[in-house]
Specification:
about 450 residues; 15 strands; 16 helices; alpha/beta; 6-stranded mixed beta sheet; about 20% strand
């Protein structure tokens, strides 16, 4: 190997290490424990949630409902800040290391509901119906909640039909906002319906958000917030993405009969005593990553312009933005948050982050560019990885092992490709969920 080639390989290894460090650092700085330390405390029986104060002495009962991938972490963080004085329900797709006293636990499904998802929703609705005007209900919501706790709005929709409907939505390639719009209107608990169930109790929602900052009601399909979407939006999305012919009969008939019921809006009485606070979001993650990249001497820009784009289009866009930034600096870092979409047409093992990374690998072959894409929940699609890492050497290294990148991309089978190269990002379930992080380095 020539000295130039050896130097290039050394630099590529160094940048892969740097990209992994930036991701891990941002994840650590955006932990739920740190967010609760900043925004929640309890002194002399008075709970502070951001700018609100709740005097426990003025309530006959305090009930907690925690739903999502971060449900366990949020309950633990609440008890660290406010003590072990709560009772409630926890529904998560992640199994807890331990259980808090006074809570009932449900192991819901993700990305499709399971029987525990239905049981969790029914238990939550029953408990909320027992609250009154002197009750305080603390909702804690995080990503993944749409499937983790669920009950169909129509009893004709069986669990099998509900699961099939979710599978169609997840694989449709539709933006997550449109998917959640349909989920809300098919659900007995989403789109503000949990808030209706808790009426007339005082309510506060603590949000760890995996949705765009300007659409908080999309988080977990907005069970406690006024819904900004309508039934007409559902019908339009179903037509746009040709969903009706894919839906099971029970779901399809609701759409064909235009029988979906409207969700509660901002003037609904359920929201007169409700408050919502986002304590952690994707922007927290991006800011932590940006500061650390700058500390490492990179010229940094943040670009979320490709949120909800198709993965291939997003790859072209971000790589072009990186090359423009590279013209201004010898060490350039482009950071992008949010999610890309993948319309799956056959079933390999992988996820949107690995699909995005594999698309980038072919476009940067031979260049001094490194790309990392990973999910903050630690789970990418149906794989055990959070995401993957590629650089200018990926294609050559793959072909030397008999791996064909283009074929793996077409078959949506990216995880075995990256696993063979040792370029997966493995964190395990993080107990957090702040959408995805893409880090692109040029040097």
């Amino acid at each position: 190997m020539s000295s130039a080639a050896a130097n290039r390989e050394r630099l590529a290894i160094e940048m892969r290490v740097t990209a992994r460090h930036l991701f891990e650092h941002a994840l650590g700085e955006s932990s739920i424990d740190r967010a609760f330390e900043r925004h929640i405390c309890c002194e002399r029986g008075v709970l502070r949630v951001c700018e609100d104060l709740y005097d426990f002495h003025s309530y006959s009962r305090v009930f907690v409902v925690s739903i999502g991938k971060a449900a366990h972490t949020m309950v633990n963080a609440l008890e660290i800040q406010a003590g072990e004085k709560f009772e409630g329900i926890v529904a998560s797709s992640v199994r807890p290391n331990s259980q808090a006293r006074g809570f009932r636990y449900f192991h819901g499904g993700h990305p499709t509901p399971n029987e525990e998802s239905i049981r969790a929703a029914e238990a939550i609705l029953k408990s909320l119906s027992a609250q009154n005007a002197s009750s305080l209900v603390i909702f804690m919501l995080s990503g993944g909640g749409s499937s983790i706790a669920e009950k169909p709005i129509d009893d004709e929709i069986s669990l099998d039909d509900l699961t099939a409907t979710y599978r169609v939505l997840v694989h449709s390639g539709a933006p997550i906002a449109e998917i959640n719009t349909i989920r809300k209107h098919l659900s007995a608990i989403k789109g503000g319906r949990l808030a209706q169930a808790a009426l007339p109790a005082q309510q506060v929602s603590i949000l760890v958000s995996d949705v765009p900052d300007n659409t908080p009601d999309a988080l977990a399909s907005g069970p406690t917030m006024p819904d900004s979407t309508s039934v007409e939006d559902c019908y339009a999305s179903a037509a746009k993405h040709r969903l009706l012919e894919q839906f099971p009969t029970s779901t399809r008939e609701l759409f064909q009969r235009h029988a979906l019921e409207e969700t509660p809006k901002s003037d609904d009485p359920a929201f007169h005593r409700s408050r919502w606070w986002t304590v952690l979001s994707n922007s927290t993650l991006l800011e932590a990553c940006k500061k650390e990249a700058e500390r490492h001497g990179f010229t940094v820009e943040v670009d979320n312009g490709c949120d909800d784009w198709d993965y291939a289009r997003a790859a072209d866009y971000l790589l072009e933005r990186l090359r423009q930034l590279r013209n201004k600096s010898e060490r350039a870092c482009l950071i992008s948050g949010g999610e890309v979409t993948v319309k799956v047409t056959n079933g390999g093992v992988g996820g949107r982050n690995q699909q995005f990374a594999l698309a980038c690998a072919q476009k940067i072959a031979g260049e001094n560019v490194t790309v990392l894409s990973a999910g903050t929940d630690g789970i990418d699609g149906n794989s055990p990885a959070a995401g993957a890492l590629v650089d200018g050497t990926t294609v050559d290294r793959a072909k030397s092992r008999g791996l064909e990148p283009a074929a793996r991309l077409r078959s949506f089978n990216s995880y075995p490709f990256f696993d063979a190269l040792g370029d997966t990002i493995m964190t395990g379930p993080t107990g957090n969920n702040l959408r995805d992080l893409r880090i692109l380095l040029a040097y």
